[in-house]
Amino acid sequence: MPRFFMSGSNIISNGVAVFRGSDLNHIKVLRIKLGERLIICDGEGRDYECRLSRLGDNIAEAELIEERLSAGEPTINTTVLVSLPKGDRADFIAQKCTEAGAHEIVYFFSEHSVSRPDAKSLAKKVERWSRIAGEAAKQSGRGIIPKVRSASSLAEALDIGVKADLKLFMYETGDRIPLSAAIGSAADAKSAAIITGPEGGFEKYEADIARVSGFTICSMGPRIFRCETAPLAALTALMYATGNMD
Amino acid sequence: MPRFFMSGSNIISNGVAVFRGSDLNHIKVLRIKLGERLIICDGEGRDYECRLSRLGDNIAEAELIEERLSAGEPTINTTVLVSLPKGDRADFIAQKCTEAGAHEIVYFFSEHSVSRPDAKSLAKKVERWSRIAGEAAKQSGRGIIPKVRSASSLAEALDIGVKADLKLFMYETGDRIPLSAAIGSAADAKSAAIITGPEGGFEKYEADIARVSGFTICSMGPRIFRCETAPLAALTALMYATGNMD
Questions:
Q1: Which residues, 6+ apart, have CB-to-CB distance to A35 below 8 Å?
Q2: A72–chain B nearest CA distance, Å
Q3: How far is A237 from chain B (nearest CA, A)?
Q4: Which among A138, A216, B170, B187 has most CB atoms closer than 10 A?
Q5: B128 — contact with chain A (CB < 8 Å)?
Q6: Are residues A107 and A200 in the same domain?
Q7: Is residue A147 within 8 Å of residue A105, measured between CB atoms?
Q8: Per residue in A83-115, pLDDT tens?
Q9: Per residue in A24-45, pLDDT tens?
Q10: Does ipTM surpass 0.85 in this model?
């Protein structure tokens, strides 16, 4: 069923949802006809199954059939923190991590980050990634749109991630714990943070800071993932291990 | 360390490997200097760590330091069979499934496959995907280059996949078994086949044929993966579950 994220005054009131602007446009692009069903999600984990009851030039309406909790939300709230990669790899990460169940996506700068946009350009990029996450959330049936933001340094990223129950730092070399051991040791975790590196990897001192901050330094096995694949692989493994791919 | 796949007469004989043509070119592009180390892999799971001992215009040589089994090969041989998607999604699948540990990648046509290249164009595409898999195998430290081929129908794909110990068919709706239950029931599997669908998904009759052929019809949870993400997500989950991401 087509899926819309709506909030504020447009959402269901008195059993009727109102579509204007880009939401109305979306109805038209998808060629939804009178009487057809769609899902409106409030972006906070609640779904409203509706039937299109009015379709005008400047407005559309849908009647509420059933209200329920969104099925698409994992039981674990995961923040994915990625060192900003080059080019469209960051787009890829926003899309794929949304599909896989990320709650929040944070791009940060680390020692070997090549891409260093200025503040204005970064703000535009965050907007773009948020839009990509929004589209992916609709397509994949999420109950929320993952929040996307940036952090200026690894320290700031650690500061965000350190609040999670399960704190994972993916590192390609040195002293590490197998990912399954790290995840297995926190079976009842309600929240997780996954940190992955840039094209050139992390410096040893960066892994050391993460370890001191309470992160588990993890290995994802003998194969080396590209920087845009690593967050998705780690997130998928976590979702699988916590019963969120069943 | 830079990684080369070589076979036939160029590989180590009498403790020396010889580089010509594209392999020599690769040495020059990577600017490997005399005395520097590199790994030559025979593509069958064996690595040769070498030192560059000669660098000429038309030939280079490397001396053998150590021979060993490639560390990058999973303990389970997985064939990923994907219904051919549109555009560059097939490229993406070849690259990412190689990183994640696929042994073989098969593209096939199913009821809702949109892309239907003719034989000549398909042969070119298979060549292209093989090249992508080769590049990804080098980058990610694989001990083999996954074989890429095409199959003309779901029946042919099932025929390939049915030989595997663990036979998984990803389906978005209807009667399904959670992925973890399907994987968990075959803990000692030495080989696996994963089948995923095209943009429009599989028809019910296709899932029925797969079930009759001995495949387990699996759910990957409440979130719907895009057709190019599904094979990677399923393969990653399998690698994680079988201890191949540790």
A1: A51, A52, A53
A2: 5
A3: 6
A4: B170
A5: no
A6: yes
A7: yes
A8: 999 989 999 999 999 999 999 999 999 999 988
A9: 998 999 999 999 999 999 888 8
A10: yes
> In what order do the strands lie in the sheet containing B147-151?
B147-151, B104-108, B77-83, B191-196, B166-170, B216-219, B177-178
Q: Is B245 on the interface with A (CB under 8 A)?
A: yes
Q: Is B55 helix (H, G, I), strand (E, B) or coil?
A: strand
On the question of pLDDT at B205 being above 80, the answer is yes
Q: Is the pLDDT of residue B187 over 80?
A: no
Q: How many domains does chain A have?
A: 2
CA distance B107 to A234: 26
Same domain as B161, residue B131: yes
| CB-facing half-sphere around the CA of B3: CA atoms within 13 A | 23
Asked if the C-beta of A69 comes within 8 angstroms of chain B's C-beta atoms, the answer is no
Using an 8 Å Cβ cutoff, are B79 and B103 in contact?
yes
For residue B31, the model assigns a pLDDT of 92
Same-domain pairing of B226 and B197: yes
Considering the domain architecture, whether residues B201 and B149 belong to the same structural domain is answered as yes
Averaged pLDDT for residues A207-220: 97
Among candidate residues A14, A34, A69, the one where a domain is terminated: A69
pLDDT at A10: 64
Phi-psi domain of B141 (left: phi exceeds 0; alpha: psi -120 through 50; beta: other):
left
Domain for residue B246, yes or no?
Answer: no
CB A107 within 8 A of CB A84: yes
Q: Nearest-CA residue of chain B relative to A228?
A: B96
CB contact under 8 A, A140 and B224: yes
| Interchain pair B221, A244: CB under 8 A | yes
Q: To the nearest whole number, what is the mean pLDDT of chain B?
A: 93
Task: Judge whether A8 is closer than 8 Å to chain B, CB to CB.
Answer: no
Owning domain of residue A152: 77-241
Domain assignment of residue A182, yes or no = yes
Model pTM?
0.91
**Tens-digit pLDDT profile for residues B162-176:** 999 999 999 999 899
Q: How far is A140 from chain B (nearest CA, A)?
A: 4
Q: Are residues B207 and B144 in the same domain?
A: yes
Whether residue B145 lies inside any domain: the answer is yes
A53 — contact with chain B (CB < 8 Å)? no
- What's the gap in Å between the CA of A42 and the closest CA on chain B? 17
Model confidence at A56: pLDDT above 80 = yes
The CATH code of the domain that includes B39 is 2.40.240.20
